[in-house]
Amino acid sequence: MKSLIFVLLLGAVFAEEDKIVGGYECTKHSQAHQVSLNSGYHFCGGSLVSKDWVVSAAHCYKSVLRVRLGEHHIRVNEGTEQYISSSSVIRHPNYSSYNINNDIMLIKLTKPATLNQYVHAVALPTECAADATMCTVSGWGNTMSSVADGDKLQCLSLPILSHADCANSYPGMITQSMFCAGYLEGGKDSCQGDSGGPVVCNGVLQGVVSWGYGCAERDHPGVYAKVCVLSGWVRDTMANY
């Protein structure tokens, strides 16, 4: 199982053509917190949480990267984009590459983002979302479709699953810093290239796209870093760094 997860994560880092599965094109700039992490190509997503900081997944770590904000069509300059380099990239101190626990990192920008209708921050949680809450995951990851235009930001509505359903899907692998969201019957999921991107529930960042067994497979929903559990570290780091 570990090797399968490792392959998925490698795909998340290196696959340029990877998109959301079973979703739809987001309304343009409706996910204005969504960013693309770029090192000459899109390799992961992220979320703007203040004018100076982006949240992403720790497994997306690169010591230097460029953050692209205000994107919709990732291969077309639409005049709404902002490109800002990282000044610091900080993984959670207890991140484990073995079991992908505490899969969260912060990126400090070299200059503040200009907040406008195309670029704005998403709120951090003050409490965890309840089971069955409907959320939106977005990204430029693998659509596994010949129809969907994955160069345009894709969205997917999906419910938070119970801890029991999540643990049953991945026995012995789910920690308190993870949750599952999606459909046990399969067919809809985040996928490679979506890693690090947002799961937003009622306007609040509750999840970071982390890992899973394949994409959109039956009884194997997507697994996400649980931001409500990790938000203390996020807030402390932003305040003190």
Textual characterization of the structure:
The protein has 241 residues and is an alpha+beta fold. The protein has 2 domains: 32-121 and 230-239, Trypsin-like serine proteases (Thrombin, subunit H); 133-228, Thrombin, subunit H (Beta Barrel), CATH 2.40.10. 14% of the residues lie in helices and 29% in strands. It has 3 helices and 13 strands. The protein has helices at 2-14, 163-169, 227-240; strands at residues 24-25, 34-38, 42-48, 53-56, 66-69, 82-91, 105-109, 134-139, 154-159, 178-181, 198-201, 204-211, 222-226. A 7-stranded antiparallel β-sheet has the order 1-9-8-11-12-13-10. It has a 6-stranded antiparallel β-barrel with strand order 2-3-4-7-6-5. Strand 2 and strand 3 (42-48) form a beta hairpin. The chain is globular and about 45 Å long. It starts with a helix and ends with a helix. Residues 1-13 form the signal peptide. Its main location: secreted. InterPro entries: Peptidase_S1_PA, Peptidase_S1_PA_chymotrypsin, Peptidase_S1A, Serine_Proteases_S1, Trypsin_dom, TRYPSIN_HIS, TRYPSIN_SER.
Topology:
Blueprint: H1 2-14, E1 24-25, E2 34-38, E3 42-48, E4 53-56, E5 66-69, E6 82-91, E7 105-109, E8 134-139, E9 154-159, H2 163-169, E10 178-181, E11 198-201, E12 204-211, E13 222-226, H3 227-240
Antiparallel strand pairs: 1-9, 2-3, 2-5, 3-4, 4-7, 5-6, 6-7, 8-9, 8-11, 10-13, 11-12, 12-13
Question: How would you concisely characterize the structure shown here?
Answer:
The protein has helices at residues 2-14, 163-169, 227-240, and strands spanning 24-25, 34-38, 42-48, 53-56, 66-69, 82-91, 105-109, 134-139, 154-159, 178-181, 198-201, 204-211, 222-226. With 241 residues, it is α+β, with helices and mostly antiparallel strands.
